[in-house]
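anyone else get weird line breaks when pasting these?? whatever heres mine. first is seq + tokens for prot A
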Amino acid sequence: METLTKAEQLKNELDALRPLNAEAEARIMQKFRLDWNYHSNNLEGNSLTYGETKALILFGITAQGKPLKDHFEITGHNEAINWILDVVKDKMSLTETFVRQLNQLLLKEPYYVDAKTADGKLTKRLVTPGKYKTEPNHVLTVTGETFYFATPEEIPAKMQELIEWFRKEKEKPDVNPIILAALFHYRFIRIHPFDDGNGRVARILMNFILMQFGYPPVIIKTEDKENYYAVLRLADAGEIEPFIEYITENLIRSLEIMIRGAKGESIEEPEDLDKEVALLERKIRTTGRETEIYRSREVELEVFDNSIEPLISHFIKTCEKFDRFYTENKFTLFADGDSSHKTKNDAISSVREKIQQSEQGIFEIQLTYNYIAFNQVGYGNFNFTSQIFITFDSRVYRVSSVPDHETLEKSAFLIFQKIYLEQMSQEQIEKIVKLKANQHKRYIEARFEQINNVTK
């Protein structure tokens, strides 16, 4: 794979810059640690934002209104990472005891989780950190099928086999550390030895292996969760190469960050600064006073430039990923029900001009992406429409959507509303667009299931 070659070249470039300046290395590893803590936990449903995660780890500040368990998950995960960073330096061997100790650090104290009995009844199951599972933890797939992990009785033997396999592979003279780390991650997930924390432990162990060979850690970003799970599902179906490719692509990003840091250059990624500036702006504008800003042409133009234009661009870019499935597609941007532009490129400038020309601004912007004639054989000929609405009230603006493709028959539902001083964050924009993309994906999957059921 070309990505493996590129990763190895970047690793050689990084090695040539070693040893790194102690302060530069500490700064780089702090960024990796903060990103790693936030994204790995958020992938599993933790509610703390990046800023709240950073405040908790660096300053011990807890987030008001957020569950105590979510704070424990972050602090436990951070302790586990710090332990891993220490044992990498000591060149500690990977053992079953090591893996169980890692899970114990991660989960901290015993707790109960919701579960189902063999006959489908709801119950509670005790999670004991550091102990292998005593009950099955199989999962239902989107198709309603059960995906089976190793049974509790199989765990000791399978974990021993995994550790022995890893030790033998690691000592081979031609071993590729990236492939080894990715395969270990996947094989561990297939066993699923613990009641909880399996995904986080898998990612920590993968990074432990990479760091043993001098690579930086891989950060799987929560915004890319769907792609991460997609390549895992492909691996479940016997196609492991896309998963290795995916891990390598993310490792390349970490290598590039570390090389920039080693050279004394900025290690911030574009979204890092965006998050920090947006957080600062919200604090400055809303702390200590109640601000009443009313709808006007000037206010709408500010919201349009800072929030709606990025939303439109991201919406179009994401919708285009589905173009391949349809014979035709058409994006339309309405302002108060009117659309005078002809192409995607002039849509934004056209609506902005309409806001400028109006005395009080406009009342509604509507993003509509129409897909015409599904072009895959056997699914039937159907269309799909994806829509987002932005409405301007006297003091707030609202972003809303519709449940599915039947936009004319379904009423809109509110995603969020904001006062006019408040702009959409990049996270919120990505969340809105991902919601629409997932609705589209689920609809196609439902058609697939419907056709399959009919043909059975």
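and prot B, same format (seq, then tokens)
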Amino acid sequence: MLSRRSILAATTGLVATNLIPEIAMSQTSSPAATGQAPGFYRYRVGDVIVTAVNDGTAARPLDGFIRNADIADVRQALSEAFMPTDSLTLNFTTLVLQTDGRLVLIDTGNGDLGAPTTGLWMANFKAAGFAPENVDTIIISHFHGDHINGLRRKDGTAVFPRAEIKVPAPEWDFWMDDGKMAAAPDAAKPNFQNVRRVFGPIAKDVARFAWESEVVPGIKAVAAPGHTPGHTAFDIRSGDGRLFLMSDTTNHPALFVRHPDWQAVFDFDGNLARDTRRKLLDMAVADRVQVAFYHAPFPATGHIVKRGDGYDLVPIIWNPHPQAG
């Protein structure tokens, strides 16, 4: 005779068995997970908390992207970096600095005027715990759209209502010069016009800084011309900590760190950009300083080592505890 305990056990097993297909069905019918976690990453530079904020990616055709390299050599460099060889995916990463009770941005991303796969900056900025109305100072490295369009929406409204905006004086003097715009080739005129769209309504309030000056305490402007006439890098220091923000001194490191003599189609003066790149990369090697790049794979920071006639970027180790870094 079956005991009450045996009957209960058998019944429980039957019920559990009958539930298995339903559980399996519910699991397999769930929508597939897509997307990534918010794109921000924090690390410390002395007492400064640095937050890298990603603005997405954009694919770039290889044809004509590097002026002075055979496309077969470019594809070989991408293959050696385990990257697709039919196009180049560019990343966009700005920095947010919490320093001396102030919130400072360096560059602002594509805003709402970039490629469909960009425009993630504001969502990531807010996910990192920030709000545009709390930004105190915005420092701009140069006037290409992917660095300044985040200042103003395409409907003309300003994004950061109370931030002071600081720009390199040589960059302002070039792009805001009507004579230079009139003499520029047709391909360059849209950038002149976009600079006026972004800065025109606030021109009288934009502060201009000189190279080698301290833009805000602890952030020094470093001359890095070539990519644009007034392109600027930044030497960020706090206590014993140091970060060298190279901005667009190189584009993707698999190409322009590894092959520093290559010249991107975006470079205003390719030879000067090459000389600047080698000078700053040599400094990063000699000083063993941590660097950050605008277009390097996220979180776009690491160290530079010399490799033959070129260099390599050694990424930092991901640290889940920036407060202990």
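btw re prot B: Residues 135 and 285 are 33 Å apart (CA to CA). The first strand starts at residue 40 and ends at 45.
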